[in-house]
Write a structure and sequence with these properties.
384 residues; Rossmann fold; alpha/beta; 14 strands; 6-stranded parallel sheet; 19% strand; 15 helices
């Protein structure tokens, strides 16, 4: 099979860029697995560029190829700021036709969309126009993300929420990372006609897990600087702990724009660490005594099992997609709108190991070989 999908520059062999987030980390896992099993992969990097340019083949070797496709950034910004509901298919008609022509010339057996958000939407529309079967993976729920976007006008938000439904209307099969997120999607967005649940594959750390004792209790967060990740709760927790003179130290792996006025206060209470590669992220987890993820909504954040697999317990909000697995670890689920109760929960589980049953469940569910085989089975079924 020849599979075409949205991809990232970080996936190009020997790229010196670090992948950020679950979809970018997943992309090379999938393409490498496909190549190993005798298939071809064509990655399309949709780039919101200052200037328009023709689609460019940037890499081609050993069954893998990568194309760079430019979409005018000015059009994107105009759409986001529109005072009236924009017609996305009309605004980006030329770009969709261009990508559709590219897809037709490549002649893939199917198009796989790694995430249901704006950039994959271009491939969705183009592949449908080219009459190629589409498989869409919901790495998040776009509606939830959009609600927290400050840079989008209200009419634009409504348009993009409607665009999310296109993934269900035009795809042959949809893949969700857990049953919980599929239920939320079905209730709040659209009812998928043909869907599968396949967990996020997570590689185990390739470094020896060291036991350690810190003079203070180190609490870490790994999350992008977006409203949905709820950094406000992490800051509120750090402030309250300092007020109570608790010997707890707070660390965050995050990139905060210098122009953001909140950065100064955040850094007064929390040690900000730079974005890290997988190996250094493993070392970070192991320096922590606890990681927390207070997200307002998070479908299947890889940082939770990554932390646990590195020997550090992880506390989550009840709006995180691992919540069904955490039914056997309720002490590690907290209401981050109630900071005093979070502190009491942390005191209760401080230095305790997580239930072995949870760890074993996550190890089995996130096994890369098992997860990727399920993707391949779906691909084969769609192309029969």
């Amino acid at each position: 099979m020849k599979i075409l999908g949205n991809d990232y520059k970080t996936s190009i062999p020997r790229s010196n860029r670090m992948s950020h987030g679950g979809t970018a980390s997943f992309a090379p896992l999938l393409s490498n697995f496909l190549i190993k099993n005798g298939h071809q992969w064509v990655g399309i990097n949709i780039n919101f560029a200052k200037e328009k340019s023709e689609p460019t083949l940037v890499y081609e070797k050993d069954g893998k190829s990568f194309w760079d496709v430019a979409v005018p950034r000015a059009l994107v910004l105009r759409t986001r700021n529109s005072r009236k509901k924009p017609d996305l298919k009309e605004v980006f008609k030329k770009e969709i036709e261009e990508i559709s022509s590219l897809i037709s010339s490549i002649k893939p057996d199917l198009v796989f969309l790694n995430g249901a958000y704006f950039k994959p939407w271009f491939l969705l529309q183009a592949a449908y126009k080219a009459k190629i079967p589409i498989i869409a993976k919901h790495a998040g729920i776009w509606k939830k993300e959009i609600e927290g976007f400050r840079s989008f006008s209200d009419p634009a938000k409504e348009t993009f929420k409607e665009a999310e439904r296109d993934f269900s209307k035009l795809s042959t099969v949809e893949i969700f990372l857990n049953s919980w997120s599929r239920s939320v999607y079905r209730k709040e967005v659209f009812s998928p006609k043909n869907s599968e649940v396949i967990a996020l594959p997570i590689h185990l750390p390739k470094i020896k897990i060291k036991s350690h004792k810190n003079p203070n209790f180190n609490i870490g967060l790994v999350a992008r600087w977006d409203a949905i990740k709820n950094h406000e709760a992490f800051l509120a927790l750090a402030k309250e702990c300092r007020k109570q003179n608790l010997p707890w130290e707070f660390y965050a792996v995050v990139s905060i724009p210098d122009r953001d006025v909140r950065k100064k206060e955040y850094s007064e209470y929390i040690s900000i660490e730079p974005i890290k590669n997988k190996r250094n992220l493993s070392f970070f987890y192991q320096k922590m005594d606890l990681t927390i993820l207070p997200s307002h909504f998070d479908v299947s954040p890889h940082v939770v099992p990554e932390s646990i697999f590195n020997g550090t317990p992880a506390m989550i909000s009840e709006n995180v997609g691992w919540i069904d697995d955490y039914k056997i670890a309720q002490d590690w689920v907290a209401d981050f709108s109630d900071i005093p109760s979070v502190i009491e929960k942390i005191k209760k589980i401080q230095n305790l190991p997580m239930p072995k049953e949870l760890i074993n469940t996550l190890l089995m569910r996130c096994d890369p070989e098992s997860c990727l085989k399920k993707y391949l089975e779906v691909f084969k079924r769609v192309t029969r």
